Amino acid sequence: MTDGAYPDLQYAVDGPIATVTLDRPEARNAYSEVMVESLLAALDAAALDDAVRAVILRGAGDAFSAGGDLKRMRDRAGMFDGDAATLRDRYIALIQRITRRLALFDKPLVAAVHGPAIGAGLDLACMCDVRVASPAARFGSTFVQVGLVPGDGGAYVLARTIGFPRALEMIMSARLVDAEEALRIGLVHAVVPTGEDLMAEATRRATHFARLPPVALRLAKRAAYRSFDADLEVALELAATYQGIAQRTADHVEAVSALLERRPGHFTGR
């Protein structure tokens, strides 16, 4: 089922799983202004829909995302128009809104990468919680190759994904990483045998998330992200607070009962 109209993007819900598809295949799913707005709107829709327990993000055509639109950069069109100060303000007001929104997106988010994830496309994949790839996937922080820097915050998210030394090397070299190396360095969590297996694996992982108690899962995800850069006392305070909330949910009672009775749990998000 497709929900609503999202220019340059498809949004569909099937049971507890929402699938967001970047849909500018003629531009290798590079960002446009309307795609940014559509992506933000789709994430809001998924966040507000209690029936949605997990989200899959993918690209249409043969690429996940090429990030920035090089032809529009060359022509200084749209989001790439203006002087240095204007461009700075526009990055903050447009592209970086995706980074900030995903940092606060509590539901599990699985990236299904079937082709190139380049520049801001790589960064978008790194903003997801889990990444699965086909053998044709390629990853590159290629900003310096075109005389740019990771303006969407990519230096931050890539370093948090694979560690600072590897992220620094990828950013400074602008080289492409194939699926096998991406798996070896922890950039992706799995590489499927063929491209045809990719959505099945992404759906399997999203379905697993969807079957868990949703409040506890969302709080656990939030605790992990918020604790990553925090000191111990802040992390412990978050853990105690979130645990107090989770331990008084009906789903906690149901989960404990299901384990003791050796049966599947049925969770309502309450």
Question: What can you see in these coordinates?
Answer:
It is a single chain. The protein is α/β, with parallel strands linked by helices and 270 residues long. The chain folds into 2 domains: 9-210, 2-enoyl-CoA Hydratase, Chain A, domain 1, CATH 3.90.226; 214-261, Lyase 2-enoyl-coa Hydratase, Chain  A, domain 2. Helices cover 47% and strands 14% of the residues. The chain contains 12 helices and 9 strands. The chain has helices spanning 33-48, 70-75, 84-93, 95-103, 120-126, 154-162, 164-173, 179-184, 198-210, 214-228, 232-246, 250-261, and strands at residues 9-14, 17-22, 54-59, 109-113, 116-118, 130-133, 138-140, 176-178, 190-191. The chain has a 6-stranded mixed sheet, with helices on both faces. A 3-stranded mixed sheet has the order 5-7-8. A hairpin with a 2-residue loop joins β1 (9-14) and β2. α1 runs parallel beside α4 and α10 runs antiparallel to α11 (232-246). It is globular and about 65 Å long. The mean pLDDT is 95.
